[in-house]
Amino acid sequence: MTTNRIAILAWLCLALAAVGGSAPAATPSPAQRGAASRVSAHLSSGLVQLGGAVRVNVFAQDVEDARIVDVPEVPGLKLSGVSSPSRESRIAYVNGRRSASTSFRWVVVYDPVEEGDYVIPPIELEVDGERVKTQELSVTVRRDMRGEELGYIEWIELPERVYEGEPFRLRLRFGWDGRTRVNYANLLLPWASGLPNVIDAPDPSRRPSNPQELNLNNQGRITVETLGEQTVDGRTLVLFELDRRMVATRNGAIEVPQSYLEFGVVEGNLIRRRKDTNMVGVDARSIEVRPLPREGQPFDFSGAVGQVQVAQNVDRRSVDVGESIKLSVEYRGQANIEFFTAPDPGRLEAFDDFRLYGTTDDYEGGRRRIVYDIVPEHADVDVIPPLPLWIFDTRREEYVAVETEPIPIRVRALEGATGLSGETDDGPVLDVGDIQTEPEGPDGPRGPSDGALVLAPAILGAGWFALRAGVRRAGDPDAPAARARRAALRTLRRELASASTASAQSLALRRFLAARSGETPEAWDGRPATQWYEERARREADEPPRAIVELDALQRELDEQVWAGADGAVDRARIESVARELVGGAL
Amino acid sequence: MTTIDGLRALRAVACAILAACALATTGAATPGTQDAADDVVDGSAAHADVTPAELDAAAARAYRDEDLSTAEALWREGLRSPALSSRERARWMTNLGNVAARDDRWTEAAAWFEGSLLLRPRDAATRAKMDHARAEAGWPPADRGDLASTTRRVLGAVTEDEARWIALFALLPLAVALGGEALRGGRAWRRACWIALALWLVGTMPCVYASLRPVDPVVVTAPGGAAARSEPRTSATRLERLPAGSRWERVDALGEWTKLRGSGESGGAGVREVWVPSSDVFRLRPVAGAGE
Prior knowledge:
heterodimer; A: alpha+beta; Immunoglobulin-like; 4 domains; 38% strand; B: alpha+beta; SH3 type barrels; 3 domains; two-stranded antiparallel sheet; 12% strand
């Protein structure tokens, strides 16, 4: 029973671990990623002897305001203090454009209490109103630092100074005595995740021919080049080399912290592990980054720094006017090839005889290849002029133009045309067109004044209100009786159209009279129109109108047909005529 | 009886509207009237013995002979004539744009075409010329194709006089609908009233848009934009650079300086007033001396 419970608990733990491990990490928003990319933390050394101090440099670059919100506590490392921020403002001119930025730096100091491998959790900052965190850091604390006599680590050709924008290499060669038993190697490189004011610029043309993966900062892996056994200072060593290409982005100093190699034997399994390792390190170094001189900087400076070689070719050298030539320019060399701004022939006076239709730009294998699609505009163009790229040559320490070679070409004129402006075979050519010579007519009437535009709707509104009020005083025009009165003649016509007897015509007429007089149809049954006129109109003294008299006669005729005749229908037109006359005034 | 009363009232309303129309045709002048008055003052003595048609013919001949400076001088002189109609003035401004374009002065050409379109906004040929000139000048297109640009173009497709007539005639459906509602009542007439009211509001939009446009618009023609300063002197604080091709309202002038008001194309920084060198801007209204 107990065994079963333990098994169930173990499965639950495994399931939770699996869920926790597979759950996606909270993905920061693009804005958070933008702010997070501007903060970083770097150890001054990845290996610290017990009694020393662990220094964490926290940077916030290209920001307006920043402060540290929270510094995590690490068991085994006692937080000693956080320095006040140092602020640095910088103004730079590249490609004729001015850029300004501000950076903050803090130093967080921990005092190790006991030896071990520690992970310093992310430090939280508030940058321009956003909360962001630095990356995790790994640091090793050792009581003894044995290993100098068995191991080897050294910087190779580390530059003492570079220019802003100039690429440089960090080559770290390391290894151990060939006679030493080693199954574990760990590089403690605080700068491996990046350095302030420096960007990684991997050289795609350099790949390790004999790669070897080693541990990095206790928690990651890194690929290095295996150099094999070599003799250094009389010692036979197994050597490796790490080669990183970087570009300094701003002037000042690049502080490369101490780097260590931990090597030895690690035995055991996941539960019990015995580690017997040695440490060998190399001191921190500083690289001075010098600003580019302002004096003599050409307006068309491309931002390229270093030594650049250029080669060029074209896909054809004999073309017709208007035909495209692909001018391919390839730049290579020890420079920030991938970052500079390519020259634009469209802005160069030398290329006035060409039209630029497009550019493709590729960086591959350490080479920058730019293809310009240019079209000669005239038949008298005989050469593609040199295309200059202004760079800062770090050897000559001056700005120089790296130019392509002029390329002779032959341009054949099109028949009946002298250049692109006369070319119409390939489609319409944009032009401002001819002048307008046909005289225009006189202007239309001048528009109404502001007063009229305000007065007209006001009058309309007032008129509508007055009219509505007047009409409503005599009753609602939308009432059923009013609608029936208006529709009476139309209804009569419709009913007469279907009436085939005098009795049906009489009923239709009574309905018409009822709708017009506001009474019921029965009220008109047997009532002479003249009597109605005298009663309702109260005009005994007057003679009844002709329409009333005709209506009276029509009623009598209909009654005769209904009661004394064969119920034959009377003339329909006569009934409609009498009805129209009644609507016209009498009824 | 009711119908007769209603018809009498309707007749009275119609008379009132006709009276308003009559007042409209003899009412206060639109902004162009003042310009015309200015033209009379400035141009009456210049070429009193030469008709505008003769000036136009002479300028066209000079243009054909590729004597651009003479053609420009003649058309500029002709613009001062008070006898020119707005449409004819617009045609001459288009031709002056052509002269500037042939002389490779694309910013000035674009400004002439823009000025011409203010007077003759539906002239497709001039609009095509303006688009071409703006492209050659490196300015952004006048119509970016977005909703705001399309709306501006639709509302600006009529002159101010036309917009005023549209606003007035848009009242007719409303008058009919209101009359029907007053005489007959009912849901259908009420609905017709609402529809006619909406039509009238739509009809007033070009007029409202025209009244909101600058009275004396200028466009920045300096290739690199115009340096805007707080006061009309070179030592004054430089506030910003007005982008080339942006349109502003001219509110004042002092010597070689022009005071502008506006918010630029984007309007992001709000309405402001700045001073720029007069040579960096181009007056779009066809007043005497425009663009000189």
